[in-house]
Amino acid sequence: MMGDRNMNGTKSMKRVVCLSMAAVLAVSTAACGKKETETDGNGEAPATIRIVTSVDAQFQVDNNPVIEAIEKAANVKLEIEVPPINNYLDRLNVIMASGELPDIVFLQETTDSSFYKWADDGLLIPLDEYLPSLPNVTANTTEEQLKAGVVPASGKLYAFPRPHAENFNGAVIRQDWLDRLGLELPETIEEFEEVATAFTFDDPDGDGQDNTYGFSMTNVNDNYNYNNLSVFYSAFNIHKAFSPDENGKVTIIQDQPGYYDMIDFFRRMYEKGVMDPEWYTNQGYAETDKFKFGQTGIDSLYIKPVSLFSTDVYTGTKSAFPESRLGFIYPLKADENSQSYYETPASTWGGYAVSSSCTQVERVLQFIDWCYSKEGRTLMNLGVQGITYDSYTTTEDGTLAKINYKDEQYENSLKYVSKYFTFITALDGMRLVAVGDSPENQDAYINMETTYRNNVQMAYIPTIQVLTSYSALMKDNPELGSKLDEACAKYIIGNSTREEFVNYVENTYVPQFADVIAEMQEYYDTNLK
């Protein structure tokens, strides 16, 4: 092992450059199943539409042929503000408080308390009444997906959730580091610890410097159906909301014995010096930035198999380390005899809302509906044929679309297309294999998803938004999650005892969810059992 360090010693790290529910369902049930339509040109002047959205770091707004094609096809002029991805929510909070609101607002999460507050404060408009006149939205969004955009306290739809192909969450790992150290992909929590320890102390990058850690984190609480820690859940027998234990009980993850086991594990990793000692300062995608720049060897922040072959995780790592290779960690098992599992609600990723400042609601909604059309979703996901892609083919089982590139088309796609600036992130229900730089990568990706389906037990659960008590709790206690994160961080870094931490969770945090847990159990017993 390299160098002698005190427990939790700090290293010299590489520099990172960081640039009513019943009503809405009644409407959606009537609307869903309609055929989609394309927008016809009628000679009217282009509508200027202001949007604030998140995009990938490489994406350029100006002189973008895909945006120009979107504007021409949809007869609009787009004014797009793109705050830095790591500070998106901070900037969005400023915008929403300014009184100068854009027409369309991208929400990274529709379970966030800010979303509920903006709806309650009248900054966003309810969208229920418009659904029957939006054939493309309703043709491409299921009832369960629509629930993700509902604010339970009012039961009204305030955001169009972005339909997404099935989630297959896990973690990405530096495969080249594993190979250099003669290690295998970890499948159990014990093997994960062994690999993370070796990545910390055994010079996995071969640069002769003591400057790497096993992994980092952004926070330690998936509040409540998020996915950034899902790779650990089956290892500690933790279940997400609505997933019953062996006795048919459903509850939040912080009300389960395995939760404390997981936090104890993170504390031990911190004490050993295996976890990035500055993890608790991470915001946005800083955890992924550290992975891309070789500071850590494992990243679990919203990682799916696609992250290994496209997205900023892949391109950023390849840019910094051209010879690097990535591997995928499936949900970890408690031991070799255990079953790994992954629990997920109906697959959506964020959503788009319309602000109350919008003076042309029908025209804006017409544009949004176009974005859900075949023309719109193809343009926004693939770009312009001949510039950002050559063609795409469908796998035999109809679940994946393989995108084919020639010459500079793959590089162009990184500049002109963003997975964030889409209203539906799957093409005709198919996940996109936008891996471009080799047929071998496409085959590897397809193999990973096939392996996931065959080896990881999948469970589908409702979104937390079906609970009216949940939105009321988030509205009245917007700092609930951050206070829990603070308590967890204090315990993990050794600034509080286990007794103090458990006392806070059991006697302060969980009791505030009493109504949520009771409503959750009733919903499960009535609708799911």
Automatic annotation (TrEMBL):
InterPro entries found in the cross-reference section: Bact_solute-bd_prot1, SBP
Keywords, ordered alphabetically: Cell membrane, Lipoprotein, Membrane, Palmitate, Signal
One of the Pfam families matching this protein, by short name: SBP_bac_1
Gene3D superfamilies: Periplasmic binding protein-like II
Keyword Nucleotide-binding: no
Residues making up the signal peptide according to the UniProt record: 1-33
Matching SUPFAM superfamilies: Periplasmic binding protein-like II
Stated name of the protein: Extracellular solute-binding protein
